Amino acid sequence: MLGKTFMQKTTRSFGSRAVPKQTQLFIDGQWCNSVKGETFETIDPFTEEPITQVQRASREDVDKAVLAARIAFDHGPWRRMSATDRGNLLYRLGDLVEKNAEELAYLEALDNGKPVSVAKVADLPLTWNTYKYYGGWANKITGDTIPAPGNFHAYTRREPVGVAAQIIPWNFPLLMQAWKLGPALAAGCTVVMKTAEQTPLSALKIAELIKEAGFPDGVVNILSGFGEDAGAYLSTHPDVDKVAFTGSTAVGLQIMRNSSLGGLKRVTLELGGKSANIICEDADVDMAVQQSHLGLFFNQGQCCIAGSRLFVHDKIYDEFSEKSAKFASEAKLGDSQDAATTQGPQVSKEQQDTVWGYIEKGKKEGATLLAGGEKYDGKGYFVKPTVFADVKDDMTIAKEEIFGPVMQIMKFSDYDDVIDRANRSEYGLGAGVVTKDIGRAFHLTNGLRAGTVYVNCYDVFDPTLPFGGYKNSGIGRENGPQGLDNYLETKTVIMSRPDGSLP
Prior knowledge:
Elements: E1 25-27, E2 30-32, E3 39-43, E4 50-55, H1 59-74, H2 83-99, H3 101-112, H4 116-137, E5 145-146, E6 152-160, E7 163-167, H5 173-187, E8 190-195, H6 201-213, E9 220-224, H7 227-236, E10 242-246, H8 249-258, E11 266-270, E12 276-279, H9 285-297, E13 309-313, H10 317-329, H11 349-364, E14 368-371, E15 386-389, H12 396-399, E16 406-412, H13 415-423, E17 427-428, E18 430-434, H14 438-447, E19 452-455, E20 470-471, E21 474-475, H15 482-485, E22 488-496
Parallel strand pairs: 7-8, 7-10, 8-9, 10-11, 12-13, 12-18, 13-16, 15-16, 18-19
Antiparallel strand pairs: 1-2, 3-4, 5-6, 6-22, 11-21, 14-15, 17-20
C-alpha cells in the first residue's frame, strides 16, 4: 500500500550516489554485448551528466532473445517444472529484491530522478510483494470439470499463452517490471522484456537477481534499447505470442494496429490517463488538499493515474485553491538521493520541456497561475509544482495528459453535471472522490467511467488490486487474479466415456 506511507516524513540520511554494476543485455541466462556493439548513455536527471553507457539492443538482439525464450518455452525445463517450484522461484526472487532493496532504491533514484526515500517506502515494497503474490498464485491456476450431456467427460485446462513480449515505461521501472514478470512467470510463460531507454539500470539489477534465484536460462530475457527499433520490432515479432505494453496511448494504438500483421497476438495495454478528482462541498479541506497533492504531485506528476483534472465544489473552491497553492509552494526540490527531498527532477530534458510547454499553454489560454510556473534556477530537469485555477474544460491543460507536476483546479456545483464532465475524456484510467457522505460516494463512483476510483484516498496500490483503464486508457487488467488471465489460454478437453459409466 502507498497512500499513507508516502505522506510520512523520512529523516534518515543516505550515502553517496549509486554505481551501476551491469550494463549488458541479458539473453538466454547470459550477459552479452549487442550484436552491433552499439551503446547509449543513460543520464542522471539531477546532474544532467551521463551515468554510464548501456548496450543498445537492435533487431538482431531481439531475434536472439525471442529465440531463447521460444526454445525455453517449447523445449526447456520451465513448462515441465511443477507449478509449486515455479512459485518458489518467484518467491525467492521477491526475497532477493527485499535483500537488495537499498541498492535498488539508489539505482531507481539515480536513473529516474525520484526521491530515494520514496523509492524505499513505495516502489521497493510494492515490487517484492508483487513477486511474492504471484509466487503464491502459481499452483492455484486451475480449470473446471464440466457436466457435459451424453457419455462425455469434459474439463478445462489453463495453459500459458507462450512467449510474452513486455515493454515497460520509465516512471516506475522496478514496479512495472514486477507487474509484467510476476503474472507471466506464474502462468508459465517465457519473457522478452524491453526496458525504457531512460531507465534501464534497475531492471538489469533484477536480471542479476533472476539468475541468482535459479530461473532456467531463456525464461527471462532483458533488453535495453529504444522503442522505435527494438520495441517496435519486438511487438511485431512472428515468434511472440503475447504483447504487454505500458506507456502512452499514442504508442499503444500503434502496437494495437501493428502487432498482429504477421498473425494474431494477445495484447494488453496500460496507457495514459487524465483522471478526474472530485472534491465535494462537505470535504475536510485540509485532508482534501493532501489527498489531491498526493494524487497529482507524487513521482513528480509522472504517474498515469494522476488526479490531474481537479473538480472542486464552488462552496469551498476559494479556500481549497488558496491552501493548495500554499501546499505546493512548500515542496522541497533537490537531489533524489537526499532524504530531505520531496520532489526530484523530471526524468529527462525532453519531459521537462514537454511539461513547460503545457505550463505556457495554460498561461496563454487564460488559466490563473497560483503557484509555480517559473523556471527552476539551477541544474537538473526540475519543474516547480505548479497550480492553475479558473481552468475551463476546453483548455489544453484540462484535456491532455501532461505527465508532470501541474495541477488544474476547476469549479463545479451540480453532481450529475460533474460526472458528465469527468467522463467527457478519451481516458478512463482512474478517478478520485473526497466526501463524508457515503450515499454521494456511491453515486459518484458508480457514475464515473474509470478503472480505479479512490474515495478519501489516492495512489493506493497493491498486487492484490486489479489495475487498468476504460476507453483509451487500455485493454485488460494488471494485478490481482485478473492479471494472470492476460497470460493464460483456456483449453477444453472432451473425452468419450464408456456406456453406462457414472458421469
